[in-house]
Predict the structure.
Amino acid sequence: MLYDKSLFEKAYNTLKLKFIYREIQNIENIRILELGVRRGLSTSLFLKTCEDNNGRMISIDIDDCGHLFKNDRWNFICTRDDDYEKIDKEILKIGGLDVVYIDSLHEPNHVKKIFYHYYNILKKGGFIFIDDISWLPYAKSAKHESSGNYEANIKTFEKLLEIHFNNIDKFNIEFSFDGSGTAKIIKNDSSELNEPKKIKKSFTFKNIIIEKPITQSETELVKLKKILPKNSWINSQKKSFKMNFTRVPTSCESCRLVRTLWTWAEPRGATRLPSCRFVREAVHVEANLWWPRKKIYKNGLPRAV
């Protein structure tokens, strides 16, 4: 058969495959590489596209799926998706690639490896679709709960973001989270891709030091007493339970700067450490302590020893 109409209808009604079909259904003389065939669901959708647009298609799988369709526009090769020498020869025969569909081994480093290889062969403006990038169907208590699929899919998703992060101008990327998810990548230029780059959160003390007024109860003051050094300041504040407090992250107790600040500030009437620019730039934050919100300091700023 040229393609299985019942399989095509099933594929078309599968949201994540419909997400692909909308993009490729009108590409003239389309050239498709499919990595992973299995029962031929996506294959039937791609063959219908080839029939409508005078296209050609190559499918790859380690299992022999060549019996599924009899179509002159289709070339099935029973091999690994990274058998580049054999596959690249067949791609040259059909004149390049407009579409690559990756649905083979769902392991992030493997996906990255074959993505980089076939991206170089893909025509400018061409599409790469990558299956199984959503971990939501496999999360705890989800319908298809699976820790293995959860880990593989979320790591593949993160790997694609890392690739895009260092190649933002070279391709566009979109995601569909229908079913097990699909990534759509559109090639913008023919230059080689850079290696993936880890995505890290921007870290500044400005984001850490937060001053939020709260109401301090007697119980919380007792906890505070356990945290702070035993000194006259603690005793003098015992009877003042309704004071306003401010949450000021400080460093660990062993930090010389914080110890110096408190040693300097407490005898001069300070009721908490100053959250001034000096502290923001100097301390490293490893613990959260509670300090009463009153006068901050007297007689100027402290100086580290």
Remarks:
- The chain is about 35% helix and 20% strand.
- The first strand starts at residue 31 and ends at 35.
- The longest helix spans residues 147-165.
